[in-house]
Records
---
Amino acid sequence: MEKPTIDSQGHTGLSRRSFVNSVATGAAAEAAVLTLPGAAAQTGTKPPQDGEMVAVVLQINGRTHSMNVEPRWTLQYVLRDRLGLMATKDGCERGECGACTVLIDGISRYSCLTLAVEAAGCQITTVEGLMNGEQLGTVQQAFIEEDAFQCGYCTPGQVVSVEALLRKTPEPTFEQIREGVSGNLCRCGAYNHIFRAAQRAAELRKVGRG
Amino acid sequence: MSAKFSYQRAVSIKDAAEATGRPGTRILAGGTDLLGCLRDGVFQTNRLVSINNIKELKGIRSRPGGGWRIGALTTLTEVAEHRQILESYPVLAQAAASVATPQLRNQGTLGGNLCQRPRCWYFRGQFQCRRKGGETCFAEAGQSLYHGIFGASQCYIVHPSDTAPALVALDAKVSIAGRRGTRLVPMSSFFVLPKDSLVKENVLEPGELITEILLDAPLTGTRSTYRKVRERASFDFALASAAVVLVMAEGKVRTARIVLGGVAPAPWRSTEAEKAVVGKPLDAAAVAAAAEAAVKGAVPMADNGYKVPLVRGILEETLTALSA
Ligand SMILES: Cc1cc2nc3c(=O)[nH]c(=O)nc-3n(C[C@@H](O)[C@@H](O)[C@H](O)COP(=O)(O)OP(=O)(O)OC[C@H]3O[C@@H](n4cnc5c(N)ncnc54)[C@H](O)[C@@H]3O)c2cc1C
Ligand code: FES
Ligand code: FES
C-alpha cells in the first residue's frame, strides 16, 4: 500500500487515484495506538511544553497514518491540509454548518470541533471511505439519483450524516430523516431532495440486505 | 486556528484534578464549546487536560437505593435515548434531545453542557466585557435581543444550557471531585449569579471537575416536561425554556418545581409560579396564575421585552399539557 508523504508545505503526495485504491484495499488495518511523547505524558504527570508535537496514529478510511500533530490541530485541518482528504469540507469551523461531518467509531461528529489528538485510536470515516471499492456507496448513489445537491458544498457532510442515520435507524421515518440531517445546513436549499435521497438510500440498503 | 497549547490525557479523576489545578489549564470533554471559545479567542489556555479516557466518568448506572447516576462524560445522545431516563425523567431526556444537532449531541457531554460558557455576543466577540475582566457590559447600552430578564446585575448573560434547568427541576445533585476529595452540591446551588461572581457561572474551583450527576427515584405521581422555544427550529439555543416537574396526588398538585432557561444568568427557579399551583387542581385558573406569577419580577432590557409574554406562553402550554 502506498504511504502518504507530507512535503514541507504540508501537502501530501497522495493522488486521488492512489487514494481511491487505498480505500479499496485498506480495509484490514492494524489496531491504533496513541503515542504521546514519553510514558510520563501518558500518565498525565509530565506537563508537556507549549505546542509540543504529539505522535499519533490515525486510522482513516481503513488506512493507517502515523504522524506528528500539534495538539491544537483539529481533525478537519489534519484531514484537509495535512492529508489532502479534501472531501471533508470547511464551512464555519465552529460547529454550525455540518460540512465537516465525519464518522468516528461509526458515530457522526464535527471534525472542526474534534482535536486530531483526540481522534487517535478511533476509526475515522470520511465520505471518501463510504465507497464500495470503485463503486459509489448506497448513500452517494441515492444522492445522485435524487439530485440532492446544487453547488455540492454541503454534500459530503450530508452524505455522512445520512450514513450515520441509516446505520442507527435502517428504516427511518420522514421526521427521523429531518432530524438526522438537521445538523447539516444547505445554502442552496436542496433539503427536500436530500430528504428523498435519504429515503432512497434506505430502500437501496434494504434491497442490498435482501 | 486557536493559539498553541499543550495536551495531556488524564488517566484518573485524581490525575485530572491535579492537572487542572495548575494555572491556565482547561478540561477537555467533547470540546464542542471549549474549542469554539479557544478558536474565537474568548479565552486562552496553555494546557488542555483531556478527561475522555477516564472510564468511571462514562455511562448511566442505577443507584443502589433507587435513582440513577449519570457520568459527566455521558453524551447528550446517550442521555436523550436512555430508556430509564425517558421513562422516569422525561424532562431531562427532552432537554438533552433539544440541544443543538445530532453531531453535537454525539460528542457533547452532560458535564460539558453544564459548564459551557455563555453565548452573549459581546462575551463571544472581541469585547473586553465584565465577564472577561473588563469594566463594561456592552449589552446595557447595546443589543440585548438574547439577553436576560431576571437575575442580572452588571452582566446580563443567560445560561445557555438546556439540561441545567431540567436538572434543577429534578433536584439533582452534582458530584464534584477536587484535589482534596469529593463534594456533593445540589444542582440548585451549583450555578452562581453575577452578584456572586462576574467571571464564572458555577461554583467549580480550579482543580475541580464534575464526576457525575445524581438523580433520586421519582415519587409516585411525578409528571415532567421540558419546553424550549428557539428562533430556528432545526437547532438553536433557547430564547426561553421551561423545565417543569410536578408531583400529583388526588387530582391536585402536591409539589412543583418550575425552572426557566434562557432568561437569567443561571437556571431560574420560579417559586412564585410553584406556589400558584401547589395544593390546587391544575385547572385553567391555576395555570394562568402560575404563568403570571412567573414573570412578575421580570426586568426586560431594550430589545428583549418579548421574553415576558414568551415565558408566560411557555408556562401556560407546559402546565396545561401536564394537566392532561
Ligand atoms: C452550534 C452550536 C449549538 C449549540 N446549541 C446548544 C443548545 O441548543 N443547547 C445547549 O445546551 N448547548 C448547546 N451548545 C453547546 C454545546 O457545546 C454543549 O451542549 C455541549 O454539551 C458541551 O459539552 P462538551 O462535552 O462538548 O464540552 P467541552 O467543550 O469539552 O467543555 C465545555 C466547558 O466545560 C468544561 N468541562 C467539561 N467537562 C467538565 C467536567 N466534567 N467538569 C468540569 N468542567 C468541565 C470545559 O473545561 C469547558 O470549559 C451548542 C454548541 C454549538 C457549537
Ligand atoms: S465546519 Fe464544522 S460544522 Fe461547519
Ligand atoms: S448543495 Fe449547495 S450548500 Fe447544499
---
Amino acid sequence: MSENNTIIKLENITKTYDMGETKLEALKGITYTIKRGEMMAIMGPSGSGKSTLMNIIGCLDKPTKGTYYLEDEKVSTMDKNRLAGIRNRRIGFVFQNFNLLARTSSLENVELPLIYSNVPAKEAREKARQAIKQVGLEGWEEHKTNQLSGGEKQRVAIARALVNSPSLILADEPTGNLDTKTGMDIMEVFKSLHEESGITIILVTHDPEISDYAENIIHIRDGLIEKEDRR
Amino acid sequence: MKIFRTIKVALKALGRNKMRTFLTALGIIIGVGAVIAMVSIGQGAKKEIEKRFSEMGTNLLFVRPGSREFRGRHGGGGSYDTLTDADAQAIIEQCNLVQYVSPNVNTRVQVIYSNKNWNTSIYGVGDKYPLIRNWDIDEGAFFTEAQVKTGQKVCVLGSEVNNNLFEGMSPIGQVIRIKKIPFRVIGTMKTKGEAMWFSQDDVIFIPYTTAQTRLVGINYVQSIDVSAVEGSDTAEAQEQIEELLRIRHKIAPGADDDFNVRDMADIQEGAQESTQILTILLGGIASISLLVGGIGIMNIMLVSVTERIREIGVRMSVGARENDILLQFLIEAIVLSLMGGIIGILLGVGSSKLISQFAGMETSVSLGSILLAFLFAGSVGVFFGFYPARKASKLNPIDALRYE
Ligand SMILES: Nc1ncnc2c1ncn2[C@@H]1O[C@H](COP(=O)(O)OP(=O)(O)OP(=O)(O)O)[C@@H](O)[C@H]1O
Ligand SMILES: [Mg+2]
C-alpha cells in the first residue's frame, strides 16, 4: 500500500463534534504521512484541533470521516477490541495531566499495559523496572503516584508508554503542567529514547523551545494543516 | 489464567481504596446482619410457641361453651353455662377414642399462708389433669377421683406459688387459705416454665367440684380438657365428642352448636398468628436497615464513580478491552458483596446468639432470611458496582478519561 518507511498515513481525516443544535468541525480534512523513526511536533493555537488529531492517531477516539493507516493497517474501520490491542502494543500515549492510577506504585502503573497483553507476571515486573530505569527513575519503583512530583509523574507516564515496546509514542503537551526546567528534562528523556531506539515520537506543544527538539513541525489552524516546517 | 490475572487486578483495586471498600462492605454487613438477627427473634418466638404446644401433647382437645363462631373464648351471651359435669362424664364413658377428661372451673383469688399473701390462679380440675397435660408431680400426690367426687378441700401447688408461700419449706400437710377457706396442701407440681407471656407455675390446683361449690358458686363447668387415646386420630375423637354433645344438648340438625371442640392445631393457629405478626414487624424493621444499607452502598459507589470512570479510561488507553473492564468490576463487586455478606451473616448469627443468651429470648436463624438478605445486599452491591462500569466501558477511551 505504501512504502515501508511510512508509519502513519492520514487521508482526509475529519472530526465533527455534534453538540445538539450546533456542530463543531474540529478537524476539517487532514491528509498527511508520517515517516517511521521521525520525531515530530504539532503546533497551533488553542482550539485548533491538535488534541483531537492526537487522540485519533492514538486510537483513543475515532474520526468522523477519512481513513487512517497505522503501519499499513486500516485502523479507521477497526472494532473496539482490535483498537484496544493497537493501543496496547503499538502506541504509547503520554498525557498532559499524566493519567496515572491513583494510590498506586510507579512500578504497578508502568506494568499496566503488560497486564493487558498477558505478559507473565515476572517478566512484566522485569520489563517495568527496565522502563523505569530508562526514564531515570531508578529507586522510585515503590513510590505511590501521589508521592511523586509532576516531573516524576511524567517520567512514570513515559515509562508506561514505552514499556510494551510500541512503534509510536504520542505526547499531548507532555510539559504543559511542568516548569521550564523540568519540561526540558522530560524533553531530554524523549530525545534519548528517540536517539537510542529510533522510535517514532509525535508531540504537541505551544513552546518553540520544545518544538526545537523535533525534526519536523506541522502547524495546525482551524482544523487544517497550515504549513509544514521540515528541518 | 486470564481470569486469575483479572482477579488480581480487582483485588488490587479494592485494596487501593480501603475506605471505599470498607464503607461499601459495611452497608452490606449491617443490612445482612440486621435482617438475620431480627428475623431470628421472630422465628425464635414461633419455635418457642410450637415447642410449648408440642410439650402439651398433640392429642389434646378442648371443649368450651359457646358456638365455634365466637372461637369459644367467651362465648355468646347466655351460652356460658351449657357444659356440665355430666357432659364430661358422658364423654369419657361413651366416646371410645377418649382416654381422659378433666372438667375445669377456674378463678383468680387471694391466697394466704401465715402472714404471706399471694394473688394467683386457681384451677379447679379433675384428677386426670396431670395425665392430660403431661405434667409431673414433684412432691406428694395429686388429688384422687374420690377426693374430687366428695369435693375435698385439698390443693396442689404450682412451683411458683410454692416458692412464694413456703420459701423452700415443705408445704405438704400445711393449710393455706384460699378465699379465707382452709385447704390442705397434698402435693406440688414440677416447674413448667414461662409460656411466652405468663408463668404456668403461678397456679394452685383444687378439685373442680370444690371450686364449683366453695369458690365460684356455679353448678356448670367452664371447659372440659380431653385427651384422645394415644395414636388415635384426634379429628375422629373430636367428631365423637361433637356428636355426643349435640344429642345431649338436644341441638336440632343444622342449628348452631352451643359448644365447640378445638384441637391443638386450632389453638396453635391462633398463637402463631400473633408470632407471625411479630416476625413481619421485625422483618419490616430489618428490611429498612437492609434498604439503608443498600442506599449506603449505592451512595459510595456513585460518589466514587467519577474516579472509577477515569480509571477505566486510563486502563482502556493502555489497552484494556471492554471485557477486561467488565470482568474486573464484576469481580470487585462480587468479592465486596461476598465479603460483606459473609461478615454480615456471622454478625447476624452472632448477635442472635447473644440476644438469646442475654435477653433470654429464644432465637432461631432461618436459612431463608440469610439467603434473602444476602441476595438483596449482593445484588445491590453488584448492580451499583457493575452498572456504571458497564456504561463506562462502552465509552471511547478519551471520553472516559475526560469524564466529569
Ligand atoms: N468532546 C468534545 N466535544 C465538543 N467539542 C470538543 C470536544 N473536544 C474538543 N472539542 C472542540 O474541538 C476543538 C478542538 O479542540 P482540541 O482539544 O483539539 O484543541 P487543541 O488544539 O488541543 O487546543 P489546546 O491547545 O487548548 O489544547 C475546540 O474548539 C474544542 O472546543
Ligand atoms: Mg489540546
---
Amino acid sequence: MEGIDISFLENKAKEIRRNIVDMIYHSGTGHIGGSLSSTDILVTLYYKILRIDPRNPVWTDRDRFILSKGHSVEGYYTILADLGFIDREELKTYCKFNSRLTGHPTVKIPGVEANTGSLGHGLSLGVGMALAGKMDKKDYKVYVLMGDGEQAEGSIWEAAMCAKHYKLDNLIGIVDRNKLQIGGPTEYVMSLGDLSAKWASFGWEVVEVNGHNISQLVTVFESVPVKYNKPTLILAHTVKGKGVSFIEDKPEWHHKIPTSEEYTRMIRELNQEDDNVREDIGSAV
Amino acid sequence: MSEKTSVLPCRKAFSEALFELAKEDRDIVVLTSDSRGSASVENFAEHLPGQFIDVGIAEQNLISIASGLAGCGKKPFVFAPACFLSTRSIEQIKIDVAYTNRDVKIIGVSGGVSYGPLGSTHHSLEDIAFMRAIPNMTVILPCDVNQTKALVKSLVSYNKPAYIRMGRNPVENVYDENIFFNIGKANLLSDGADATIIATGEVVKTAYDAALILRDKGIYTRVIDMHTVKPIDEEIIIESARKTEFIVTVEEHNIKGGLGSAVAEVLIRRLPVKMYIAGIPDEFSITGSQKEILEHYNITPEGISNIVLKELRRG
Ligand SMILES: [Mg+2]
C-alpha cells in the first residue's frame, strides 16, 4: 500500500496490541506472548506489503499469507476485522460457542488461507501455493509466518528442501524468533543453534531483522526476492510478550490469562507508550 | 460379468486414464514421493513435466503441498504406497485436506498385503479405518482395471477429498469396458435369497467366485461390490438384510474398522442381522506373497463359501 508511513504502522501496531490483550482477557483464552511478538510483523505485512483486497478475499492474483504458528490468532483476527475481511462485531465471538473465530484459524474466515494450529504444516502449504503461482505464471507472493519452537517439526525441513529444489523465489518464510516456547527457552527445550546457518544450508537466502522495528521490516519485505530463483527466509528477532514490560520474555506468559489487575496494568502501559510516541512525534515536528 | 482377464494392475490403469485427461486439463497435477515407478506415473514425469511434482521421500510435505495447490485452483492427484501415505501423512490428510476441505485425490497404491513378503511396514491394513474416521473424506477401492478407468473419469469432476486404494499386482476383470462409476452407489453383481456377500476392492473377485462355488451347491447369494466404503450405500445394505438375514463382508484390511465395521454400523442402527467380517485378523500378518497371505487367512473363494455354508447349516 503506497502512502502508508512508518508512524501509521507503529500506531496501528499499538492499537492491535491493545486489542490482543482485550480479546484474551475478555474471552479467557488465547496465546498472549506469541501474539504480541508477531504483531509488528503482521501489521507490516497487512497494512503495507500484502497485495490483497478485503472486498474480494479469493482474488486469484492476491498474495497469500499463512499463519503457520496458528496459535497467534488474536492479532490476526483483529487485523482481518480492521481491514474489513470480517465484521468487527464478530471479534466478540472469539472462542465462543459456534463461532467461526476458533482458537486457531480456519478457511471459513474470509482472508484466511489455511487451517493451522498443528505446527509444521504452513511452509509445505506455502510451497504448494508458490508452485501453483509458478505454474500459472502469476506474480503473487506467498508469506509463511512460523514460530521458533515450531522449527523442531521435521516437516518444515522437508518443505525447506523442496522450496529450494523448485526455485520458489515467490515464497517467503518468516521466523518469529522470540527464543521461547511453551516449555521454556528454545535452547533449553530443543536447541536451534545457528538457525540462520541452518536455513542458509538448505539453500535459502536468509535476512535477519529486528522484528519490532517496522521501518526495518518494511525495507526487508520490499527487497524480496533477495535472490532470483531462491526462497527467502526472514529471521525476525523478537521478544515474546513485546509491549507489556512485566510479561516480556517470560515463558509463563505463553498462554497465561491476565487477572483483572494485570489487565488494567497492561492496557495502561500500552496506552502510555502510545502517548510517549505522540509526544516524540510532536517534538520531532 | 466379463470373461476377459487383464494382466494390468489397477494402479497402471489409473495412471493411464488420468494421463489422457491431464493432456486436456492443465490443472490436473500429479504429485509423488519418489514413487513414480511403483505408482506408474512415469508417463507424467516424461510427457507432462509441468504437471508433475516429485517431492522426494517426504510424505507429510507431499500432502500439504497438494493442499496448497488445490487452494490455488489446481486438481492434485497424490500417488504413493498406501502404507506410507495413510500413516505417515495422516495428520496432513486430516487437517490440510479434509478439515480445510480441499479437492485433493489421495491415491494409495500397492495397498493391503500386495507388497507381500516385504512385511508389515509395507502393508496397509488400517488405511480404510483411518480414512473413514475423518470427516469430509470419501473412501473408494476399485476392484479391476475397467472399473478403475471408469473411476478416474468420475473422480475428475468429484470436487471433494477422496482416498483411493489399489493393489500392486495384476487383477482379473470383474467388469466389462466402458462401465460407469457411480461414487457412493454399490453394484449388485448377483442376486439370491440365501445370503449376502459384500466385498470391496480387489477381493470383490474372490467374493464373486465364492458365490459361484455356492451356486454349484444350490445356494444363491447376493454379491455386492461396495467400491465406495464412505459414503456407504446404506440402502443396498438394508435391502440385503431384508432379503437374506445373513451378511458376510470381505476385505483386504484389518477386521477392525474397515468395510465390515462400516456395514455393521448401518445394520445395528437400522436392521440388525447376523454378520461375519472376513479380513485380516488383528495381528501383524504372516510372511508370504499376497496370494499366500490371503490364503492363510481364508480370504479365498473356498474360505468365503465355507463361512456361508457353515452359517446356513447352523441356521
Ligand atoms: Mg517462540
